[in-house]
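Hey there, shall we discuss this one?
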Amino acid sequence: MISAAVMDLSKSPHAVVQPVAPGRVEVAEGFWAYRMRAMRGHGLARQFEQCEVTGRLRNFERAAGRLEGEFEGRYYNDSDVYKWLEAASYALARAPSAELQSCVDRVIDLIRSAQRADGYINTYFSGSRASWRYRNLTDEHELYCMGHLIQAGVAHRRSTGSERLFEVVVPAADHICLTFGPEGRPEPDGHPGIELALVELARETGDSAYLRQAVFFLDQRGADPPNLSGLHYHQDHAPVREQRNADGHSVRLTYLAAAMADAAMDTGEAELLEASIRLWESAYERRAYVTGGLGSRYQGEAFGADYELPNDRAYAETCAAVGGIFWNARLLAATGDARYADWSETALYNGALVGVSPDGAAYFYANPLATDPQPTPDDQQGLHSSGAQQTVGGHQRQPWYDTACCPPNIARLLLSLPGYAYGVSAGAVWVHQFLPGRIKAALPDGGSVTLQVATRYPWDGDVDLVVEEAPDRPVELRLRIPSWAEGASLEVDGTGKAAEAGAYAVIRRVWLAGTSVRLRLPMDVRLVASHPRVQANTGRVAIARGPLIYCIEAADHPESIVDALVLGPDSALHADEEPDLLGGLTAIRGSAGVAVPNQSDELYARFDGGGPELAGSTPLTAIPYFAWANRAPGAMRVWIPYVDG
């Protein structure tokens, strides 16, 4: 197993926390091991088949002159192949597979054959379209596609030790540096992505020219006159250091702001980091869903205004949740602030994980927080135009999309997830996320710490750590206490103390082999309320337990009453383990009132006070939001009316 870093910050002078490479994290059986195994063993194979049948691989053959015919699909389809390659590289690093290796080798051969002599590669802009190269960077995604190629090449080299894909990446990046810059073309890409890739390539090669190129692209936004559209949609309305609100296309914003934080860790430029944090505060303190989803508008797949968070019209694209995790991971590395790990956790278990079925083979593009059996015609049109199709019967997962960015994106996140769970700094090991298994963390100032972690998280709040190896000097163990975990406690060899929620608990000592640490996180069922300005949730609550947000689904209730269920003080909500439901999960059970439907024909009537009239109660079952729509299509709600008394 190659010890490959997802972000190699070992030589980034301004990083506070370096991630432990995923190859040094052996994930044991448990919640994430199950999902990673499903993606590695089944999901990647299905995605590869889709790349074949939809013509994505044939496009490379045409670009190489091996096949006649027209380009198939959308002009940005190369990026899906590259993201699949990145995910497959992480999978090969963890578990060799002759079948997967054969597929990877075939794709790399196709890519190598399609590259032009000057390093340029894009299968849409080849053949009769070769003269169209870089004609419209605002809309046509050329640099975005090459960014994903670079990320795949770096991941493949780190994961397998092979240079075959990396030998494509370096000429492609050199071509970009020769074409764009102070002496060349000024435009960035309308869809960020190349910036993140170039920063990581600079780390991999030690060539600072790639870092300078990434910063150059960041600096070209908000120019006067504009280099792109000048619009908020493309984050081109102002220079990046002056942008204050999370505006425009939600995925693009996450990639852009992540690159700003990434570049700041290598350049030390405080303004870039401060701007990224300012955008994060806009996104996550005023514009994020309780699930960690981002993007409240179908139109433009975009952020809305502050507190504009509709439920049934939520876009919350899977890629935006994934991009948000990448962004949070970089801000965490740059600052060590627990709030970024908290939001990563929320998005991991809810907003991103909902985007893939338990077997890793079916996906969501958009992720609303309320649905009904039949979408309106406007819903179908809006979803189809962006690639997020619904089928008759309501919102359902699909094996693929015309715009298929989400399936390989969730694959590369899941298969690199161990690289985001643990970190190191001088004299310290950081536990960001609770993945069971063995972690062998090399400290930047010498020596290593080996931890054995056992937990049933997120179903159980006990996290047991045993130190197997540590240097003969004081070392800090920093354990994140989630912000929801009021009343958490920490025990070291049986001696306990309270732990502050929303921060890292720090234990500094000379660790002896066999020393045990137990973190106890309260896993009571709790109700969550929105900020008063979130009008969609007035009078409603969401059910949560641990890091999980729950929902009610028609599969557990008569379809006609899902929207009539009302919670109250007597609902007696409690956790109930269901080992045979959807691969095993903890459901929330209790009772709910049933609101009497309004029989009036009047659209509006006089309000006489009081809450809804209730017609008795009925059993209520809530399941984790990530698990919905895996049985039968039907209505779903995250936010439920609450009547106090």
Observations:
- Confidence is low (pLDDT under 50) at residues 376-393.
- The CA atoms of residues 24 and 343 lie 24 Å apart.
